[in-house]
Amino acid sequence: MTESELFLTRRTAFHAGSTLLASCATLAIVEQRGAQSAETTPLPGQGWRAVLRKIGTPEFAGAFVKDPVLKASVMNRECVGVASMAAFFDASRQMYDSIAFKRETISGAQTYLEWEGKVFGDEVGGVTILARDETGLIQQVEIFHRPLHVVARFSNELGKRLAGKLDASLFEQPK
Fold it and tell me: What DSSP letter does each residue of 59-82 carry, written as one string?
């Protein structure tokens, strides 16, 4: 019979001068079989990508609470509702040249996904935070992009692609 070992690592991130203080736990379950061992944890972002592949289906809507909230650095304020989120993600996922989730950390009801990729030929990176309710449904998604010039360009392009679908003021930039 194989032995299962549970490894729990804890890391705390703090950036001086920032209001962000994140304490995260990463859980890795490793099965050991004789001299071989195989990691059984999914790839970073695998679960979130599976949700995004279902945009436009009842399964996509079923992953969220009734009125989920989306907050993003490419929008002026939050938007609410599954239909709005589906429109946002459907438009934005088509804009990336590439994207890869590098790390996934779960702490209680929060999942933190660090990612990097290319958009408009430029390097982009960021963090996606998924907050779940007590039943495991996603109640809030927060997405933070960097660097600033990519955020501004991404927001502008997203506003064009979502014209008539989401409120244009979500993407208005100062003149």
Answer: HHHHTEEEEEEEEETTSSS-EESH
